[in-house]
Amino acid sequence: MTDQEAPTRPNPRKVREGVVVSNAMDRTAVVRITNRKRHPRYGKTVAHTSKLFVHDETNDLNVGDRVRIIETRPLSKLKRWRILEIVERAR
Is the distance from CB of 6 to CB of 14 less than 8 angstroms? Predict the structure, then answer.
């Protein structure tokens, strides 16, 4: 599936951007995403982080890579995301 096909879906798939924190598993990487939201009462920006398990078919991700991931069907007990593109390689 490409970017051009995504808008034709009645309910488009979620796309997130994050940093790879682990690639120790076979064909699986762990990506940390950060959501920033203003606190409703105090107005301070609060950061919430989540770790998502991502399918990496070619095992080419390294720790520190910035990636864009897209929601997909369940691939295993925890994997519900796959790699859309690698935005930036780790240095």
Answer: no
Taking a C-beta distance cutoff of 8 angstroms, is the pair 27, 54 a contact?
no
Find out whether 20 and 62 touch, Cβ atoms under 8 Å: yes
Average pLDDT, the chain: 92
Tell me which of 2.40.128.280, 1.10.3210.10, 2.40.50.140, 3.40.50.620 is the CATH number of domain 13-88: 2.40.50.140
* Structure confidence at residue 91 (pLDDT): 87
| CB 86 within 8 Å of CB 56 | no
Work out the number of other CB atoms within 10 angstroms of the CB of residue 53. Answer: 19
Q: What does residue 6 show for φ and ψ, rounded to 5 degrees?
A: -60, -45
Scan for tokens 């919430």, then name that residue: 48
**Using one digit for the tens of pLDDT, what is the confidence trace for 17-54?**
999 999 999 999 999 999 999 999 999 999 999 999 99
